[in-house]
């Protein structure tokens, strides 16, 4: 079976990790193709164990699938090794991990610049995690980046780092009055990482091509989500990569003709972390309800997530942009107990109703949601496993979301556990 892409349809944190884990036992490869350790997936296994993954693909918890970090990911080796060790201590087999030699490294100067630039921006800050992701991608584009394969050649590593620090240390010291990065200490630190990471570094493109030729199932897992895409999201309040379906080809090195299914994940409401426009954001008791009941705190940062009602304009945009074949709605149970459940069906901008994403940043900042209210439900739905198990009003809500997105809803999450789902249509045959 050809490749499957799994993406987020909102601003991230939709529950992609749960879906990856749900499919993990039925796929042969799980590939992370974008982002860095600014992303996070929380997975709860059937025995109740909770795993917070940041760089490792969520398929790491599958007993069989090969797990791959593709060339489109930026890797902080210290973070990755800590995650490998943490999983190994809990009995997870990490020997199946392979990392593209072309994936770029996050270096100490990237983290330092990320933090100081964000502070310098003040009220205009983007809301980054301060983990060096943006500066690492910036160096990649500027062609002065350092890659995983460079760890295998100490001479190349030193030469590339020396070249990079000529500029970066000048900026840190003379512009921001910060301590310069020490070349020798950094080379020594990263060569220690090299010893441990060497067994995992591979030519992952050829590995995936061979897998596809054999008919193996390859699941491509995006970090972050559509509205954080560098080109198609709410720029400049975005991540520094392309977590949309098109980015899977670039970030993993597979041909677009290999992809035959795109699964998008969306919460039954909307959240985002960091700065930027958010038309349906709630600042009242309803927002607090969603945050509290939904445990809306970032997996990576612990920051409170901003919460709002479901935005069908955003979801429909994501479905069209990514060519979504199957939509997964998570956290429907969080809406239980609300007398009315609004859905944003359009925007009002300068007195004019629009039903599609505005073209300009200015218009999106000024978009006011147009709501359609549906009746809520009070029944506990966490034990529901079929559509008939859901209350009538919950079924109506799902049907209306499906209609507004013009995309088949295949799975509805009714709780955080791996098995707490209503499967309307199988994701895999």
UniProtKB/TrEMBL annotation:
It is found in: Cytoplasm. Binds 1 Mg(2+) ion per subunit. The keyword Repressor does not apply. It is an enzyme of class 6 (ligase). Its main location: cytoplasm. GTP binds at residues 12-18, 40-42, 305, 331-333, 413-415. Keywords: Cytoplasm, GTP-binding, Ligase, Magnesium, Metal-binding, Nucleotide-binding, Purine biosynthesis. It catalyses: IMP + L-aspartate + GTP = N(6)-(1,2-dicarboxyethyl)-AMP + GDP + phosphate + 2 H(+). Mg(2+) binds at residues 13, 40. Substrate binds at residues 299-305. The active site is at 13 (proton acceptor), 41 (proton donor), 140. IMP binds at residues 13-16, 38-41, 129, 143, 224, 239, 303. Belongs to the adenylosuccinate synthetase family. HAMAP family: Adenylosucc_synth. NCBIfam families: PRK01117.1 (NF002223), purA (TIGR00184). This is Adenylosuccinate synthetase. It comes from Micromonospora luteifusca.
């Amino acid at each position: 079976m050809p490749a499957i892409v799994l993406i987020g349809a909102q601003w991230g944190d939709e529950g992609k990790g749960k879906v990856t884990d749900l499919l993990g036992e039925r796929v042969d490869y799980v590939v992370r193709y974008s982002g860095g350790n600014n992303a996070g997936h929380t997975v709860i296994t059937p025995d109740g164990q909770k795993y917070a993954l940041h760089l490792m693909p969520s398929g790491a918890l599958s007993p069989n699938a090969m797990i791959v970090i593709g060339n489109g990911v930026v890797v902080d080796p210290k973070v990755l090794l800590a995650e490998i060790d943490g999983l190994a201590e809990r009995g997870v087999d990490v020997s199946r991990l392979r990392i593209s030699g072309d994936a770029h490294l996050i270096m100490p100067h990237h983290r330092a610049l990320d933090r100081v630039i964000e502070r310098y921006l003040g009220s205009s800050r983007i809301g980054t995690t301060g983990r060096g992701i943006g500066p690492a991608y910036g160096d990649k584009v500027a062609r002065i980046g350092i890659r995983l394969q460079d760890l295998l050649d100490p001479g190349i590593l030193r030469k590339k780092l020396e070249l990079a620090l000529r500029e970066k240390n000048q900026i840190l010291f003379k512009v921001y009055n910060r301590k310069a990065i020490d070349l020798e200490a950094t080379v020594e630190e990263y060569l220690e990482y090299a010893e441990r990471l060497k067994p995992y570094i591979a030519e992952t493109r050829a590995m995936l091509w061979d897998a596809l030729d054999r008919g193996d199932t390859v699941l491509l897992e995006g970090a972050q989500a559509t509205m954080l895409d560098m080109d198609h999201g709410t720029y400049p309040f975005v991540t520094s990569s392309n977590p949309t379906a098109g980015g899977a080809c670039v970030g993993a090195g597979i041909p677009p003709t290999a992809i035959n299914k795109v699964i998008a994940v969306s919460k039954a409401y909307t959240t985002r972390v960091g700065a930027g426009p958010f038309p349906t954001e709630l600042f009242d008791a309803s927002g607090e309800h969603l945050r509290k009941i939904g445990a809306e705190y970032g997996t990576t940062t612990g920051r409170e997530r901003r919460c709002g009602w479901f935005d069908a304009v955003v979801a429909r945009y994501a479905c069209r942009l990514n060519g979504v074949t199957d939509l997964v709605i998570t956290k429907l149970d969080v809406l239980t107990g609300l007398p009315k459940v609004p859905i944003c069906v359009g925007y009002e901008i300068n007195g004019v109703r629009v039903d599609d994403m505005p073209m300009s940043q200015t218009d999106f900042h000024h978009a006011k949601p147009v709501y359609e209210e549906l009746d809520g439900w009070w029944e506990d739905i966490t034990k529901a496993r079929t559509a008939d198990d859901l209350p009538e009003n919950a079924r109506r809500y799902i049907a209306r979301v499906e209609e507004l997105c013009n995309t088949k809803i295949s799975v509805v999450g009714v709780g955080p556990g791996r098995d707490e789902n209503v499967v309307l249509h199988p994701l895999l045959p």
